[in-house]
Specification:
By secondary structure, the protein is mostly beta strands. It has one domain. It is 0% helix and 59% strand. The protein has strands at 11-22, 33-39, 42-52, 55-64, 73-76, 81-87, 90-92, 96-104, 109-117, 125-133. A ten-stranded antiparallel β-sheet has the order 5-8-9-10-1-2-3-4-6-7, with no helix packed on it.
Length: 138
């Protein structure tokens, strides 16, 4: 008997790469994992800093909404970008910063950079780059 369950293909795991660093502390953030997804026209990225015994405990999450993909530069806070930063017990959305994203609709490819001001330390600016492509379009 064939299953009638439909497979949800709305979430595509994307190929991705990037780098980043924290300017205020001059500490080089070495991402242990960078994950990217393209879901319902939005680009979601997670930059993991520590994937230890308890899973990802430190990360920077940046999501660019579909309407924001066509903008050259997005100043935060903005409805076009969602962010979440977690370092140890401190976490929250960025209080400021910017995201620059170049979107190639034909190839479902996003490339850009981000600067985020951490909510728990207004002077800590987190910077990084991203390059996300939906599978089958690279």
């Amino acid at each position: 008997m064939k299953s009638t369950a439909k497979i949800d293909k709305s979430v595509e795991h994307a190929s991705k790469k990037g780098a980043g660093f924290a300017v205020a502390t001059l500490e080089n953030l070495r991402f242990t994992d960078i994950r990217g997804e393209f879901e319902h026209g939005n680009v979601y990225m997670i930059f993991a800093l520590n994937d230890g015994e308890f899973g990802i405990t430190q990360f920077i999450e940046v999501s660019v909404m579909r309407d924001g993909l066509q903008k050259k530069e997005i100043i935060l806070p903005s409805p076009y970008v969602r962010s979440w930063i977690r370092f140890g017990a401190s976490q929250g959305a960025a209080t400021g910063g910017r995201v620059v994203c170049k979107w190639d609709e034909a190839n479902l490819h996003a490339v850009g950079e981000f600067e985020l001001i951490a909510p728990f330390n207004g002077t800590k600016i987190l910077k990084g780059t991203f390059d996300v492509t939906v599978p089958g379009n690279s």
